[in-house]
């Protein structure tokens, strides 16, 4: 278990398309553990592998602080509705901006044992899942911000 260095906007690794995980290895298990540690340490609600410099389709999300979701090779299979709200990113420190996302998503993914499962989420969970999956294709929320990117207060948590 270790805290990894979070890559920031401007670094090329955040603009690349990630490769699927074809086999669960000790190295990828360690990556997942480290991603969870790194996300909690930074008070984030989600983290994608490219944010720690690894171009693999791995995401961790936890919007409650006690319910980690590990998503390997995730893809959105259903989405509906719309929500408009503020979004931030650990790779874009100190900023937030308004982004429109679906209010509901269903994701198909593999777990740490490469077993398929589905995750459904609404509101913040749906937003976090969409945000993290965008990272896997090299996209940051700042590309989708409506209006200005704002400075956030120190005590605000970032997604
Ligand atoms: Ni992000």
Secondary-structure topology with pairs:
Blueprint: H1 26-41, E1 46-48, E2 58-61, E3 69-80, E4 83-87, E5 95-101, E6 104-110, E7 116-122, H2 123-136, E8 146-151
Antiparallel strand pairs: 1-2, 2-3, 3-6, 4-5, 5-8, 6-7
Give a structural overview:
The chain is an alpha+beta fold and 159 residues long. It has a single domain, classed as Peptide Deformylase (Alpha-Beta Complex). It has two helices and eight strands; from the N terminus they run αβββββββαβ. It has helices spanning 26-41, 123-136; strands spanning 46-48, 58-61, 69-80, 83-87, 95-101, 104-110, 116-122, 146-151. A five-stranded antiparallel beta sheet has the order 1-2-3-6-7, sandwiched between helices. A three-stranded antiparallel beta sheet has the order 4-5-8. Strand 4 (83-87) and strand 5 (95-101) form a beta hairpin. The radius of gyration is 14 Å and the shape is globular. The two termini are 22 Å apart. The model has no long low-confidence stretch (mean pLDDT 95). The structure holds nickel (II) ion. Residues 89-91, 131, 135 line the site of nickel (II) ion.
Shape, principal axes of CA atoms: globular
Structurally, the number of domains stands at 1
User: N-to-C terminal Cα separation, in Å?
Assistant: 22 Å
CATH fold name, please?
Answer: Peptide Deformylase
How would you spell out the order of helices and strands? HEEEEEEEHE
Strand order of the largest sheet: 1-2-3-6-7
Give the DSSP E fraction (strand runs of 2 or more residues).
Answer: 25-35%
Biggest sheet statistics: 5 strands, antiparallel
Low-confidence stretches: none
Q: What is the CA-based Rg, rounded? A: 14 Å
| Helical proportion, percent range | 10-25%
CATH class membership? Alpha Beta
Helix-strand makeup class: alpha+beta
Small ligands present:
nickel (II) ion
CATH second-level architecture? Alpha-Beta Complex
Tell me the number of strands.
8
* Averaged pLDDT: 95
Provide a count of the helices: 2
């Amino acid at each position: 278990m270790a805290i990894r260095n979070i890559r920031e906007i401007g670094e090329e690794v955040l603009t690349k398309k990630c490769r699927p995980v074809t086999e669960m290895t000790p190295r990828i298990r360690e990556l997942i553990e480290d991603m969870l540690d790194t996300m909690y340490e930074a008070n984030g609600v989600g983290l994608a592998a490219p944010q720690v410099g690894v171009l693999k389709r791995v995401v961790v999300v936890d919007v409650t602080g006690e319910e980690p979701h590990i998503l390997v090779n995730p893809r959105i299979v259903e989405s509906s509705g719309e929500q408009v709200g503020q979004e931030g990113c650990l790779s874009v420190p100190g900023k937030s901006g308004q982004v429109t996302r679906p209010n509901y998503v269903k994701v198909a993914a593999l777990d740490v044992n490469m077993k398929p499962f589905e995750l459904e989420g609404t509101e913040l969970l749906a937003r976090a899942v969409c945000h993290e999956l965008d990272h896997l294709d090299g996209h940051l929320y700042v590309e989708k911000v409506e209006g200005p990117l704002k400075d956030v207060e120190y005590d605000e948590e970032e997604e």
